[in-house]
Amino acid sequence: MYCSVVFWSYFQGVISVFGGSSSDSFLDMRGIFIKHSFTSFQTFSQLCTFDYSTKLVLVHKAPWYIRDEPRFAYRGLLLDTSRHYYPIDVIKHILDSMSYAKLNVLHWHIIDEESFPLEVPTYPKLWQGAYTRWERYTVEDAYEIVNFAKSRGIHVMPEVDVPGHAESWGKGYPELWPSTSCREPLDVSKSTTFDLVSGLLSDMRKIFPFELFHLGGDEVNTDCWTSTPHVKQWLQNHNMTSKDAYKYFVLKAQEIAISKNWTPVNWEETFNAFPESLNPRTIVHNWLGAGVCPKAVAKGFKCIFSNQGFWYLDHLDVPWDQVYTAEPLEGISDASKQKLVIGGEVCMWGEITDTSNVQQTIWPRAAAAAERLWSRRDAISSGNINKTALPRLHYFRCLLNGRGVAAAPVTNQYARSQPNGPASCYAQ
Description:
It contains 15 helices and 14 strands. It is an alpha/beta fold. The protein folds into two domains: 55 residues, no CATH class; 330 residues, TIM Barrel, CATH 3.20.20. It has an eight-stranded parallel β-sheet with strand order 9-8-7-14-13-12-11-10. The N terminus is likely disordered.
């Protein structure tokens, strides 16, 4: 009985390009390899198929010798729990499905301007910004998610987006708003703002052991600062423009994160605005478009690729083949600079997803990016990918369905749309 190693396993002779090694590895920012064996079990599980004639589980063409390793250390999925709340069991199911595709970082975008669902013991009123009292994550919930992820070889990188995207913080602590009528960015003029950020990060450091911490920094509209009298006066007293204050806030937040032994990750706007001022440990997270990672690595920064034109999963009109052919190292020819691109991430923003449709929005397109992030560049299918890569993606989608993951049909015009009619799973 024919057995493939599914979509990401592209074999050449006896060596699998995307099959799984004896231990997966994530290279942290100190150069230490953190070993996981979970991916090897995934590879083995996908070599096994059930023969309906003999009613036995078979391994096709055994024995196998598989030598493999990931192309990129960082292979991520962003999950946004601020625009819609996901119960703990749903997050666990997503973590399970990530492990099937050998994605190894959950970027947990926990809070945003719409809601603040996380418990912060030092500042217990913060989660008054949750949608309801039933849509919250306790400290114990967060621990549970981190430990569940760890058992599957997945790190959890939390995000606290500052100074913008923070209106929900003021539901419990309105003094964080510049004014009640102008509620974000966070009030840059008060030392208590940074005291709270520090307390929040201290509490989170107890939960999240992963070295990377995402500080956001994107889409900061500083109109509130220049239109609120006391903040405007503070700017004048410190001889700052609103752009200067934006830089001041980002750099101060970085200092706080670094003091807690975190490596800061920031969205690309911070790099675009003041690259010379960012802490040299900063990891620049691309999202707006092409060309940012080449500029970032040219200045010595590490970079994560998430070009929204291809790897934003809420863009339902982006087909699988465009996800598949997006290349994190595009425009970077120098081998030493290529090493500074630590990987990439598909982003599941939550405006148009909730528990009812999140898995079929993530899958199977996220698997196309997963192959790109695992396999060697020269081993990625090229030419007519409808004949080479597409059958593997069909197979992987059916494998996901067989494991209870609501992965959508592969080639429909819009992601997550229903089947077009009766057909085999392997042809939709």
